[in-house]
């Protein structure tokens, strides 16, 4: 079964309802890129009239996590995934529609292959950049994913 934006959004609705309610939506995914958007609105605001940082984090994490999920599925192996660390920087108020993109699907393949070959846990840092409708960066997230082959 191929991962698609509509399947990711259904996953959000049932498994991550807070992200779904806040307006996080997958828009595009292929073997190298995932794009997720979220629109500033009352439900996801902070007291400073911009989007709450954690809502941006949910959208950013989905861009990286969806690529990892897709690559694990393609490998045919049972591999666990977990965010080990993350950090972010915020450069502008997030208002309007914010688009998060991760373009690093190609490096996930190498990490999964190494986890399968060695049988040892591997980590990978993936980046998600959030931009507003003018194309100006509003936030930049880094997620360190830990990938480990599950014992049969």
Short description:
By secondary structure, the protein is an alpha+beta fold. The protein has helices at residues 5-15, 17-22, 53-75, 105-118; strands spanning 25-29, 34-39, 79-90, 97-102, 122-131, 137-149. It has a 6-stranded antiparallel beta sheet.
Describe it.
It is built from four helices and six strands. The chain is α+β, with helices and mostly antiparallel strands and 152 residues long. It has a single domain, classed as Hotdog Thioesterase (Thiol Ester Dehydrase, Chain A, Roll), CATH 3.10.129.10. The protein has a six-stranded antiparallel β-sheet with strand order 1-2-4-5-6-3. A hairpin with a 5-residue loop joins β5 (122-131) and β6. The chain starts with a helix and ends with a strand.
Kindly report the average pLDDT value. Answer: 96
Assembly state: single chain
| End-to-end CA span | 22 Å
Largest sheet: 6 strands, antiparallel
CATH architecture verdict? Roll
CATH superfamily: Hotdog Thioesterase
Topology:
Blueprint: H1 5-15, H2 17-22, E1 25-29, E2 34-39, H3 53-75, E3 79-90, E4 97-102, H4 105-118, E5 122-131, E6 137-149
Antiparallel strand pairs: 1-2, 2-4, 3-6, 4-5, 5-6
Helix pairs in contact: 3-4
Descriptors for this entry?
globular, alpha+beta, 152 residues, Thiol Ester Dehydrase, Chain A, 4 helices, six-stranded antiparallel sheet, 6 strands
